[in-house]
Design brief:
By secondary structure, the protein is mostly helical. The chain starts with a helix and ends in an 18-residue tail after the last helix. The N terminus and C terminus are likely disordered. Keywords: Signal. This is SmORF.
């Protein structure tokens, strides 16, 4: 019931959940809650340009021209190149990454590749809601503090279904906008949920704006994880409305 009341208030405000970080950056929070931080007023953020390290092949057009799969997709991570192999090992949990050869010239076996593909198919809302220690710890770090405080640290403790539903809708609708807010909590969470190969281009200081090209890559990454179609996972703990 709480989740539906919150969603009703969000609809009444009439703001788009797809606001860009530059739009939201002009709003100043009045309260300490997630909703007030997302929709309240904020002082104008600093707009000084920030130098971003030069990156190779980050433009989507270049991917099309080279015939490579979309950046950060499972096929991209499995390419036998140094950058891709490093990104794959940093993205996977330790139980899987330790099985992946550091040398990109060493092939990944069929069995391991299947495990990697299964992991990618779960990564997103469903993975965060799994009743596993790693998933629960990651979920608490990935959420705004006023939502995370209601998530039990012990992964064996079930979340009440209303909270689970609200978390799912947060990731599906509001996560990208919240992660891109120029606030310390949002910036820290953003750097945490991104793969290292992308997080390194995000300034730690939330007053430093994110380069537009980097922001586009972040949005693309989230579109391939949090905003994908929800899959039915029978072994998922808790009630998934």
């Amino acid at each position: 019931m709480v989740a539906f009341n919150i969603l009703w208030k969000l609809c009444a405000i009439g703001l788009s959940a797809t606001a860009t970080s530059s739009d939201v950056a002009q709003e100043q929070p009045k309260k300490e809650s997630f909703l007030s931080r997302f929709f309240g007023k904020k002082e104008e953020a600093k707009t000084q340009p920030v130098e971003v390290q030069e990156r190779d092949n980050t433009d989507g057009k270049e991917d099309i021209e080279t015939g490579e799969p979309p950046r950060y997709s499972v096929e991209w991570h499995l390419l036998p190149k140094p950058e891709n192999r490093a990104a794959l090992r940093s993205f996977l949990p330790r139980s899987l990454s330790r099985k992946v050869p550091e040398d990109c010239n060493e092939p990944i076996g069929p069995k391991l590749e299947k495990q990697i593909r299964n992991y990618f198919s779960l990564y997103g809302v469903e993975w965060f809601l799994l009743p596993e220690p790693e998933s629960r710890a990651a979920l608490r770090k990935a959420l705004p503090s006023d939502i995370a405080k209601d998530v039990p640290e012990d992964c064996n403790k079930r979340m009440w279904c209303g909270l689970e539903e609200y978390i799912f809708k947060f990731f599906k609708i509001y996560a990208t906008g919240w992660y891109l807010l120029p606030e310390p909590e949002s910036r820290a969470a953003l750097r945490y949920v991104l793969p290292r190969s992308l997080a390194k281009y995000v300034p730690e200081d939330c007053n430093e704006p994110i380069d537009p090209e980097v922001e586009n890559e972040i949005r693309e990454f989230f579109s391939k994880t949090f905003q994908k179609q929800r899959k039915n996972i029978e072994f998922l703990g808790g009630h998934m409305f």
